[in-house]
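Holo model, flavin-adenine dinucleotide. Inputs:
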Amino acid sequence: MDFSLTQEQRQIREMVAEFVDEEVVPRAAEIDATDEFPRDLVDQLADLGLLGAPFPEEYGGADLDYHSYAMALEELSRGSGGLGTVVAAHVSLAANMVCEFGDDRQRERFLTPLAEGRDIGAFALSEPGAGSDVPAMETRAERDGDEYVIDGTKLWISNGSVADTVILFARTDPDPDPDADGGSISSFVVRPVEDEGFVVEGTEDKLGDKGCPTAELRFDGMRVPADRRLGEEGRGFVQALKTLNGGRITIAARGVGIAQAALDAAVEYAGEREQFGQPIGEFQAIKHKLADMDTKVSAARLLMHRAADLKIRDENYVKEAAQAKLYASEVSRKVANEGIQIHGGYGYVKDFPVERFYRDAKLNEIYEGTSEILRNTIGDRVLD
Ligand SMILES: Cc1cc2nc3c(=O)[nH]c(=O)nc-3n(C[C@H](O)[C@H](O)[C@H](O)COP(=O)(O)OP(=O)(O)OC[C@H]3O[C@@H](n4cnc5c(N)ncnc54)[C@H](O)[C@@H]3O)c2cc1C
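Output:
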């Protein structure tokens, strides 16, 4: 068992950390206040190769191992939780779907511009009536000759209003077998500029995760060529679950990054703030809080790397990815909460960043599998 990073992994972490400290941290409060998609920063991430981090070089990717990609996402999320979601939705979900389930022609046409950052990707699975219960989806894709005609609504789609390429899940079997869990769902590559009937209904006004637009999308008789389907008909649900497994490692990374930011802010404040004639960090109550925060962040990071390790080895990592995401999500909320507590009243206002970390952290417990759903996933495997 070797816990040390390779020289390349260390260099990637340092490169992203430097970029985050110089370019993202100084902009994070502004992104939070305006909730505008930070296109220029996303372009810079593309120049660094991060929008194609884990994909093969022949499709414009950087061919990084999953540890490196997760660490890059952790560092980005340390700077801005919204930017973390932008990249996770683009890379782990949208581009990954094309890489893993597309054919060579689809990879060349859709993955390369995503990996190079010329296109932005989104992953449209959730619907108003189908969140945790994915197979309840109502969006329909009906075959008509060489095309599919798609009708339906998707909700909560990260990058949805700025995406050039959207991976859309729809029901292709109008009369599904009730016992075939999700067996009637297929996935498609759809393109707002090309596909008439693609409508962005609007974006959400959220608690946190600012800068990453979360959109409602509507599809009105949208016709797409049949060769935009990824893989065989009826494989969409399995593809989505497989993709979300990998995605959960990067949401764990987002949690670890936000928690690390809250810990760093709390350590700095505890050394500066004086009460009763001494820095508050010298009170045992505060020191113990910092000790617990640091321990939790380290444990969450290790769970993230364990899941990444199994993924790299091509072993089953469903339980481990769920554990990493569940634990890191709860740690990020708890550590951000303690970060506010250590700042006292100053933690409750926007003069300090800890209240933003708390708002950004909360989302980790909801998307890509709520904590309740992840406990179901883990519990099923523990009892198996
Ligand atoms: C900011 C944001 C960004 C998002 N980005 C995307 C995206 O890019 N693409 C996408 O497709 N989706 C996205 N989502 C959707 C997200 O994945 C769903 O919100 C999530 O899966 C939960 O679905 P729901 O909101 O419908 O809640 P529900 O499924 O209605 O759940 C409500 C509550 O019931 C609990 N619950 C439900 N079923 C069970 C059960 N079987 N056992 C125990 N408890 C249960 C849940 O845990 C939760 O506490 C995003 C959501 C948000 C808020």
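Residues 89, 123-126, 131-132, 156-158, 206, 209, 214, 363, 366-368, 370, 372-373, 376 surround flavin-adenine dinucleotide (CB under 6 Å). The first strand starts at residue 121 and ends at 124.
Archived with the compound record.
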